[in-house]
Amino acid sequence: MTASTSPLDTRAAAVPLAELRRTARSYALNPNLSALLPESRDRTWARLAGDARLDVWLISWPEGTETGWHDHGEASGAFAVASGVVLEQTWALGAVQHRTLTEGDARAFGRDHVHNVVGAGPGRALTVHAYAPGLVTMGQFELGPDGPHRLATPQDASSW
After folding, report:
1. Residue 39 CB-density burial (10 A; 0-12 exposed, 13-18 middle, 19+ buried)
2. Which of 50-54, 86-90, 146-150 has maximum average pLDDT?
3. In angstroms, rounded to a whole number, what is the distance separating the alpha carbons of residues 134 and 144?
4. What does the alpha-carbon distance between residue 160 and residue 69 come to, in Å, rounded to a whole number?
5. Hey, which residues does 58 pair with through a beta bridge?
6. pLDDT value at residue 4
7. 136 burial class (0-12, 13-18, 19+ CB within 10 angstroms)?
8. Measuring CA to CA, which residue among 22, 27, 12, 28 is closest to residue 77?
9. Per-position DSSP letters for 71-85, written without gaps between them
10. Could you give the C-alpha distances from 69 to 18, 33, 119, 121, in angstroms and in order?
11. What digits encode the pLDDT tens for the residues 9-63?
């Protein structure tokens, strides 16, 4: 007898990065997203959809707010900018790399991706994030001279 995966076991099936990017972009096209989160000086977020296979989140980025260096636990992901400007910082080639993303831009990444995202202004930005499997934990990192170093055990994603 051989083992098989049930078609009902959605967690076992990986979601391709291209699908995550398409999902984030699709949700980001909604012209009513700004009404889903209040204006605030702090970063705010709301879960738009999700199941065991995939999570979709809306995040508001007032100018100057940031996530801090982090990963997404066991999840791969993608994000699309619905409005405004965000700056993504990653570590590569021995230095911090900066990528500016504006309305319509999208970025996908694997589960080993560590980055910091910043609301670059002016005003607030809105981004839509898609994660697979659903986002459960996030690791926090500190940036040292030789790159990001994990600070502690991953935290529950609901507190990020």
Report:
1. exposed
2. 86-90
3. 29
4. 12
5. 46, 128
6. 37
7. middle
8. 22
9. --TT-EEEEEEEESE
10. 24, 26, 14, 19
11. 434 458 999 999 999 999 999 999 999 999 999 999 999 999 878 999 999 999 9
